[in-house]
Specification:
Elements lengths: L1 H13 L11 E9 L12 E4 L9 E6 L2 E6 L3 E4 L16 H11 L3 E9 L3 H5 L6 E9 L6 E4 L1
Length: about 150
Amino acid sequence: MFLLVFWGMAYTTFFQDVKKLNQNAVRISYSYKPLIVRYKPNQSDYVTVNNGNGRKPIQRYTYYVEGRKYQTDSNNATVVYGKSNLNVQAQAYDWNKKWLNHLDNRYQHAWVATVTTTYKKNWVNGIGLHAGRQADRFSLIRIPDKSFMTVKQ
């Protein structure tokens, strides 16, 4: 009996895939904010990209929203520029495309949209010690064109 209870708690704590959970287990929220230009003598930008190295390089993005500096990596964000406000990586999430087009018009193609998935407070999430905690977060960083992005090696 102990092993059965231990296996159940271990599964709900460590092995639940948030992307496969139904809507009854998680709450999804969206936030949208305009980006702030960071002025520098040589080139002003909205986003600074630091390229990683190694076998699986990860890019690190730095951007400013409402006067605060935010940093995230390419596992949890993507940068989009050009005509489309979504790319293949961002299309995995359920965005309101009409609202994204509205943001393009309102903020001149310079905004960040974030989708946050939080575990609901129910008994299964409580057993797994997840209730009320953040499960996943993904940011869609939109800039007008590539010239507003500084890439560092």
